[in-house]
Amino acid sequence: MDVTDLRIALFSGNYNYVRDGANQALNRLVGYLLRQGASVRVYSPVVKEPAFPPTGDLVGVPAIAIPGRAEYRAPVMIPPSIKRDIKRFAPNIFHVSSPEILGHRAVSLARRWDKPVIASVHTRFETYFRYYGLAFLEPLALAAMRRFYQRCDAIFAPSESMAQLLREQRMSYDVGIWTRGIDQEIFRPDRRDLAWRRGLGIADDEVAIGFVGRLVMEKGLDVYSDAIDQLVRRGVKHRVLIVGEGPAGDWFRNRLPQAVFAGFQAGPDLGRAVASMDMLFNPSVTETFGNVTLEAMASGLPVVAAKATGSDSLVAHGVSGRLVRPGAIVGFADALQHYCENGDARAAAGEAGRKAADRYGWDAVNQELVDGYLRIIRQRQAGSRAPRQSPLPYTD
């Protein structure tokens, strides 16, 4: 069996209606699979005006808007018509990308039809509750996720640090790696554009501390703002450059009125924006990989990030940036001040990050998951099955 024999049914809670790192990775994966001769059919909620065109065949599933986050859709079921569509497609493996209703129903369907199923892990959903005053629900979320992932034949994490966390949480017997790649034509140091910076009011000799991503509280916007406040109180000269949009945009603008907000950027424009920063500050603990961290490194920037899943596998502390205990405001401010005041340190860390990012090519990355598909199918054909129960104990 090889890649041309693969028939993959992919289930995603958000394939293309809101742009984020997870669904862009899935679209790149589908594009690679199709180029290699595999067959893929994608099942996900759809909207009239998606953020970008889908790669491959996309079949819409019923969904409702999520209260308080209306830009997102919550799938509610796999109706009989969709089940018939899946049956006609005749997949030989299921791939689920998030532990919500659609994912659960797809796993149940795969097990009913005796098909292997794998899950890719894209974000730390259990941590989201911390940002909305609901931290007490985190143990319940972990238990629900454990039940979901243990019903799959294997799960794939985007970084070794995330894979290790999943093992410690007893999420699966079989944890593989499907990391993320970088478009090295877009993210590179020579995309830096001082004229573009000047147009935003940032002088050539000002040190721009960047943020890239959706403006949502779970990205650590409160920690980001508090650390910048520390720099202001210390009298450290800097500018803040924010790239992205999102529902917390007004909150962030009010919190950092001195910052420059460049709005949403994509493709070469995003590459220009990132390279035109002087460092990236990423305090988030919700990422499983940290696409923006890798993009900044490829652009020659030092990275100050939370020592958490994702960045912990990318940033070499003291070499390509600084890793700081999550939520440690003073520690983040110290790291930012170091790079604000030391141009040689910025240049050395940026060059180290650029070299480290060279090994992340999308085709090689996606081939790792193709190899994982084939391995899981072979194991199933040899008689290996995912456990029917959830026998893995978990203790804090």
TrEMBL record:
Organism: Sphingomonas colocasiae
PANTHER family: SULFOQUINOVOSYL TRANSFERASE SQD2
Entry protein name: Glycosyltransferase family 1 protein
One family name in Pfam for this protein: Glyco_transf_4
Family matches, as CDD domains: GT4-like
Ranges for domain Glycosyltransferase subfamily 4-like N-terminal: 20-184
InterPro entries: Glyco_trans_4-like_N, Glycosyltransferase_grp1
